Structures are given as structure tokens and as C-alpha cells.
Amino acid sequence: MHSSSRHASSGFSPRTIGLAAAAVTVLIWTAFIIIARASADPARGGSLTPFDIAFCRIVGASLVLLPWGAWLVVRDRDRGVGQSSLLGLSPLSLKVTATVGLFGGLLYALLAYSGFVFAPAAHASVLMPGSLPLWTALLAVVVLRDHITPLRALGLAFIVLGDLMVGGASLLHAFDGGEVWKGDVLFMTAALCWSAYSVLARHHALDAVRATIAITAFAFVTYVPVYAALTLGQVVVGHVFTAPLKEVLFHAMFQGWGSVVISGITFTKMIQHFGPVRSTMITALVPGLSALGAVLFLGEPLYWNLAAGLALVTIGILFGVRVAPPLAIKKEATRAGAAGARG
């Protein structure tokens, strides 16, 4: 009753909110791939390292989310409800904050940005959003006791073939001294980390805002002071304190406010409505849009194996969405509604 009245007062149905969240997530993820490659690729003259960009991302997001999290913790304490951790910065328990924060707040950013040093954006377009449904489906079986239908398994098989079309070619050149394969492995691992976060968010029925605050608080506490000390002490090579201010501010705003605050909330909101497996499959537009953007804005070539891998991954994602049995969709939506009410 409370959940339905809340949606009625907002003027938007749960489906409308879910679709809007999906659209925003797709657009920001597409821009993320193009901008991250343009910034992290040493050949393009960017002054920041991948770890610098991760620093900007976390600090930028923290400026918005940590005060928000502290306010939620104080409000919860006044009401005698809720849990908190990390000195009142995270509105979730320490165990949940650490697990979702490790995968969704820290490892994903470090692995993804590092991958762009070695591999082009077109590879990221296929291997990051493209492999999300695969990893998420496998993890959902283990954590959520989900079931993979034969038709969905066929869709996932298309995704695996597409990933092999892209990453396999890079691995074949590994012994020739090429380094693109390193980026491919990093992209796949980053996707695995984000899938782990999405499944854990559904497993714990996390509220979208609180989950995004928690993963940012964990990354801030564990990464920012350590990296700042190592950089200032010249133990590691970093340029975040010497780079042009406008470049640092840009990444703090886009990577922090856009990629973390906005898309973090919309992605988790999408999970609440569609479930983790269908949510990652809804991102079918990201590989195609970001690969096209890499060609148009970065001048990257689209080789035949990349185009074939892109097509296979997109078919696999779309196939997985469309063949979901109506009963399964209904059950998934019912669980998502219950998760949203509990969050």
C-alpha cells in the first residue's frame, strides 16, 4: 500500500521510472567509454593516468554523496532505524558497504580505466557492457539461485562468441608483442566486478541512493588518502595534483557526478524494476552506440572482427531480453517491487 501510494504521488508508474533509468544509464555508459578512452590513452596526450582519473571520479562523487550519506545516517538515527558504517558516511552496514564497495566502487573503476591504456574504445564497447549479461547470469545462479532458461542460454552463447571474436584476435597477437589483449582482459574483469555489484545489490534489496552512497564512501575511505599520500610522496607516478585544473574538474564532474552519482542511481533503480539479468541485457544499445562514437569522435577503425563481435553481442543481449518467458518476467517484476519496498 505504501509503495503504490508513493508511486501514485510521484505521478510516474514503476515501469516509466524503470525505462527512464535505463535510458539515462545507456547514454552515460556510452559517453563513459568514449571519454575514458580519449582521456586514458597515452597517445592522445592526456595528462592524467588511469589511477588519477579514478581519483577524480571518487572525489567528485564524494562531494555530492558523502554529505548526503551523513544526512541519511543522522536522520535514521533520529528515527531509531537503519544501520551505518565508515564513521557515519555510509548508510549501510560495514559488511554490505565493503562487499558492494569493493566491486562496484573501487575495482570496477581501476580496472576499466587501466584497460583504456591498452585497448581501443571499440573493444571496451563489446567486452564491458557486452559481457555483463554473461557474468550477471552466472553470478545470479550462484547468489540468487536464479535459473538460466535454454533460450536465454542461447542468447548468452551469442555473447560469448562475440567476445571471442574481439578478445580472441587480441590474444592471438599476444606473442607478437601486442598489448591490446591486456586491455581486453581488464575490460572483462571490470565487467565481472560490476556484475558482482549488481547481483549483490539485488541480493540485499538495496535502495538505489543508499547503495551508490555506500560504494562511494568505501572507495573514498580506502583509496583517496592512500593514493594521495603515495602520489605526494612520489612513491607512484601520478599527475592529479599537477595537471591542468580544468581537466581535473572535468573528470570530477563527468566521471564523478555523471558516471557515479547519476548513472549509479539509475542503474540500481533499473535493477529494482527489471532485475539484474534483464537490466544488464537492456544495455544492448551501449556496444553499438559507443563503437559508433569511437569511429566518429576518436577516429578508431572498425575492423571486421570487431563489427562481427559487436553484432553477435547485440543479438545475444536482445535475444535474451525478448525470449524471457512472460511468467518469468512477472515473477522478476514482483521480486523487484518487493525489493524496492524494502529498500
Please tell me about this protein's structure.
With 343 residues, this protein is an all-alpha fold. It has one domain (14-342). 80% of the residues lie in helices and 0% in strands. The protein contains 13 helices and no strands. The chain has helices spanning 2-10, 14-40, 50-79, 94-118, 121-143, 150-172, 180-203, 208-232, 245-274, 276-282, 285-298, 304-322, 326-342. The protein is globular. The relative contact order is 0.19.
Would you summarize the structure shown here?
This protein has 13 helices and no strands. With 343 residues, it is an all-alpha fold. The protein has one domain.
Itemize the secondary structure elements and their pairings.
Elements: H1 2-10, H2 14-40, H3 50-79, H4 94-118, H5 121-143, H6 150-172, H7 180-203, H8 208-232, H9 245-274, H10 276-282, H11 285-298, H12 304-322, H13 326-342
What percentage of amino acids are in beta strands?
A: under 5%
What characterizes the major β-sheet?
none
Alpha carbon gap, first and last residue: 15 Å
Low-confidence runs? 1-9, 323-343
Helical coverage, percent range:
over 70%
* Total count of helical runs of at least 4 residues: 13
**What would you call the quaternary organization?**
single chain
Radius of gyration, CA atoms, in whole angstroms: 20 Å
Order of helices and strands: HHHHHHHHHHHHH
Count of spatially separate domains: 1
- SS content category: mainly alpha
